[in-house]
Write a structure and sequence with these properties.
Blueprint: E1 3-5, H1 11-23, E2 26-28, H2 35-38, E3 41-42, E4 44-46, H3 51-64, H4 68-74, E5 76-79, E6 83-88, E7 92-96, E8 101-103, E9 110-112, E10 115-120, E11 127-129, E12 132-136, E13 139-143, E14 150-154, E15 159-161, E16 164-178, H5 183-202, H6 208-223
Antiparallel strand pairs: 1-14, 2-4, 3-7, 4-6, 5-16, 6-16, 7-15, 8-9, 10-14, 10-16, 11-16, 12-13, 12-15
Helix pairs in contact: 1-3, 5-6
Length: about 230
């Protein structure tokens, strides 16, 4: 499932993140890449343990925790602490797949990367190129969203960031371990949850709402690892 989460961050949130990242220390993005990804990765990343980067990450996690669309789609069990990257001057990240298990730096904690997320912190008009291109059975899908918008997609997907030919592309990226491991099951639960919410708004007295809600929670009980 490929899903846009609009307005995860407000304009003020985006400005705050950008201010914090101006104060962060940056390093070669290949330091966090696996062997194959390292060969095609050319960007810079904010150092994970820098206080400014950690404050920006905490802000993002706080917004995730209260975003109903994200919660419905991801059914999060663990969120890898958000990181930040920057592309400019022709930098790119060729086709790759994300590492299946990520270790949280400085801790014994690991996160299975069921879902990948990119949160855009630069407006589309601020740079040329830089599309996040995600592949699935229906082809390649270029994604370039407004600042504050996020895209969620399966961690199993091949994807790339096309070269940024002018301007500067700033974004946050991270992964989610879901309570529901399989994408097709999460997609089923998401569609059912969205339908239930729509019916609750349109026909709140509909008796079938209770039955549908019962089906949703019984499927969640069957599929969840919590």
């Amino acid at each position: 499932m490929l899903l846009r989460v609009p307005g995860l961050l407000t304009a003020a949130d985006v400005d705050r993140c950008r201010q914090l990242l101006e104060a962060a220390e940056w390093t070669d993005g290949r330091v966090t890449a696996g062997y194959q990804a390292r060969r095609v990765k050319d960007n810079i990343q904010a150092q994970e343990n820098h206080p400014a980067a950690r404050e920006a990450a905490d802000l993002i996690v706080a917004r995730l925790e209260r975003n109903p669309l994200f919660l419905s789609a991801a059914l999060p069990l663990k969120v890898f602490p958000p990181m930040f990257n920057c592309y400019e001057g022709g930098q790119t990240f060729g086709t790759h797949v994300d590492t299946a298990i990520r270790q949280v730096a400085g801790t014994p904690h690991r996160v299975r990367t069921d879902l990948s997320a990119t949160l855009f912190l630069s407006a589309p008009e601020d740079y040329e190129g830089g599309e996040l291109t995600i592949e699935d059975t229906y082809g390649a899908h270029p994604v370039k969203l407004a600042a504050g918008d996020m895209v969620l997609y399966p961690g199993t997907s091949l994807h790339q960031v096309r070269p940024v030919t002018s301007g500067r592309r700033l974004a946050s990226f991270f992964w989610i371990q879901s309570m529901v491991r399989h994408d097709h099951q999460r997609a089923t639960l998401f569609d059912l949850d969205q339908a239930i919410q729509q019916l609750a708004r349109d026909v709140p007295e509909q008796a079938a709402l209770v039955q549908l809600t019962n089906v949703y929670h019984n499927l969640l009980r069957q599929w969840a690892e919590a």
